[in-house]
Structures are given as structure tokens and as C-alpha cells.
Amino acid sequence: MSRRFEILDLSYDFGGMEQHLFPVVLFGQEEVVLVDCGYPGSLELLEAQLRIHNIQPEALTRLVLTHQDDDHMGAAAELKEAYPSIKISASHAEAPYISGACKNLRLQQGEALQDKLPEEQKAFGQQFCDRYRHLRLVLVDAPLFPGEQFDWGGGCEILETAGHTPGHISIRAADNAYMITGDAAVIEGEKLAIANPEYCLDPAAAEQSLNQLLQYNSCQYICYHGGVLKNSLE
Ligand SMILES: [Zn+2]
């Protein structure tokens, strides 16, 4: 079988704290699809990672955003600017927040919390909100629907995995060779867990989504935060 997917590794240094994000590239018959694209300002980092994996950035045909958080969609506008032919996809439910038709939910959450924060955390809260106020928006020109199937990555299906945000999606290989979880699951101590429960907009839905992902018993779970968890039951 031809190449199905590659996992990129975007590395950031936040004042000595290293953070890694793991976007995925899926190869289809006619499409080369990047899933999530890092924080604002990540274009050069992305281009370098693509080339390391022998993918020309010009070859990308589509960017799929699992949801509206800035570590996932931050570089979408700059990527679209540099490569205008790239289609931008996200779930139908998430698209209005990514394009700016609706106010970003993380910003709404941050603003609602700001007054309740203890004094020593107010500066952080303010910074967080400002980050989202300056987030560059991008038009979603190819919305996705749960259950939709594509030939990307050897055949895959779009899964609705609400909770972290209402329109969050994950991508499942039709043969369960892999699952791209987005932030519906992170790796914690060799297990899948709910990402940052304090940011989770609907904890009950997030729990349900995590269970859904686990039920597929995929050979490997590719988590945007944490990388790859191989299924030990194999
Ligand atoms: Zn994230």
C-alpha cells in the first residue's frame, strides 16, 4: 500500500518549557490533507516539518481543523495566505467560530472567568483572552459532517467527538489502523484521558466521546498532545 500518513512534530519553547504538537498528514488519491496546524506563527515550522517528511508544502490540498482552539487553527490563515489553493475544512458545527461568524468559545469562556479569577491569576487570564482576540480567523470553505468518508490515509471516516468543544471531530481509519483524536483524547501515563478537563466545555459529552474512541480499539491513537499510543491489545 502507498504511504498512508505521516505524523509531524512541531516543537515550541515557551520560556524554557518545551511543548510538542503532533499534526498529521493524510495521503489520498488526489488529496494531501494536513490535520491541524499549530499556534499562530507556525508556518515556517510547518514547512520545515513537511519537508523533513518529504512532503512539499505546495502539495497540500486541504487543511482539516479538529476544532477552534489556537494551538490547532492558529496558523490556518497564514497557511491559506501562503498556499491559497488549500481548502479549509472543519465540522459544520465548528466552522462559524473558526471563520469569526460567532465569537470563539474559548474567548467567551476566558472572558466569563476573568472576574472570578484570584488577583494573582488575572494577568494570565487577560493574556489568554488577548491571545484569542488577536487570533487570525479563516473561512471554512469545505465543511465536514460526521460520518463522511474519504480515501485519505487509506480510507477514513469523520467522527463527531464533542465535549472539548461542541463541534470537535476526530478521524478514524476505516480499518482501525489509526485514530486521529485531536483533543478528544490525550496520553496520560500510557492511557488515553480527557484533555485539560478545566477547559472542557461539556465534560459529560467529552467522557462519551473518549469512550467512543476507545470502543474502536484502533491499532494506534495519534494524539495532538502526547503523540502516538499503540494499542497493547494487539
Ligand atoms: Zn489542543
Short description:
The protein is an alpha+beta fold and 234 residues long.
Multimerization state: single chain
N-to-C SSE series? EEEEEHEHHEHHHEEEEEEHEE
Biggest sheet, in brief? 6 strands, mixed
Mean pLDDT: 95
**Helix/strand/pairing class, anyone?**
alpha+beta
Present as ligands are: zinc ion
Write down the CATH class: Alpha Beta
Q: Tell me the Rg in angstroms.
A: 17 Å
Count of helix runs: 7
- What is the share of helical residues? 25-40%
Biggest sheet: strand arrangement: 8-9-10-11-14-15
Shape: globular
CATH homology group: Ribonuclease Z/Hydroxyacylglutathione hydrolase-like
Low-pLDDT sequence parts: none
Assign the CATH topology: Metallo-beta-lactamase, Chain A
CATH architecture assignment: 4-Layer Sandwich
What is the total number of structural domains?
A: 1
Task: Give the terminus-to-terminus CA distance.
Answer: 21 Å
Description:
The chain has one domain (5-230): Ribonuclease Z/Hydroxyacylglutathione hydrolase-like (Metallo-beta-lactamase, Chain A, 4-Layer Sandwich), CATH 3.60.15.10. 26% of the residues lie in helices and 24% in strands. The protein contains seven helices and 15 strands. The strands form four sheets. It has a six-stranded mixed beta sheet with strand order 8-9-10-11-14-15, with no helix packed on it. A five-stranded mixed beta sheet has the order 1-4-5-6-7, with no helix packed on it. A hairpin with a 3-residue loop joins strand 14 (220-223) and strand 15 (227-230). Helix 5 runs antiparallel to helix 6 (122-133). It is globular and about 55 Å long. The mean pLDDT is 95. The structure holds zinc ion. Zinc ion is lined by residues 69, 71-72, 183, 224-225.
